[in-house]
Amino acid sequence: MMTEAEIQYVSNENGEPTAVIVPISLWREIESERETAYLLGSDTMKRRLLEARGRQQGLSLEEAVEKLGI
Q1: Half-sphere exposure (Cβ direction) of 30: Cα atoms closer than 13 Å
Q2: Cross-strand pairs, 20
Q3: Which one has a higher pLDDT value, 4 or 47?
Q4: Cα 17 versus chain centre, distance
Q5: DSSP assignment letter at 4
Q6: What does DSSP assign to residue 6?
Q7: Which of 7, 36, 61, 69 has a CA 20 to 30 Å removed from the CA of 25?
Q8: DSSP of 9-58
Q9: What is the DSSP letter of 60?
Q10: Are 18 and 11 in contact (CB under 8 A)?
C-alpha cells in the first residue's frame, strides 16, 4: 500500500503545491488505469476487450514468431 510519505510535493515560491513526485510503480498504475478508462469509454473497444478477456485460446510466442516469419 502506498503511503503519503512516498509522495513528494513540489511547491512554487509562494509555497503553493504545483507538482508531485511519485514512485514509478504508482505512476505505472495510474497510467494503466487511465488507459483502461479511455478504452472502456468506447463501446467498440469495450466490447473487443471483453471478448478478448473471455478467449481461452491464443498463440505461444514461438507460434506467433513463426506465423509472422520473424
Answers
A1: 7
A2: 9
A3: 47
A4: 25
A5: G
A6: G
A7: 61
A8: EEE-TTS-EEEEE--HHHHHHHHHHHHHHHHHTSHHHHHHHHHHHH----
A9: -
A10: yes
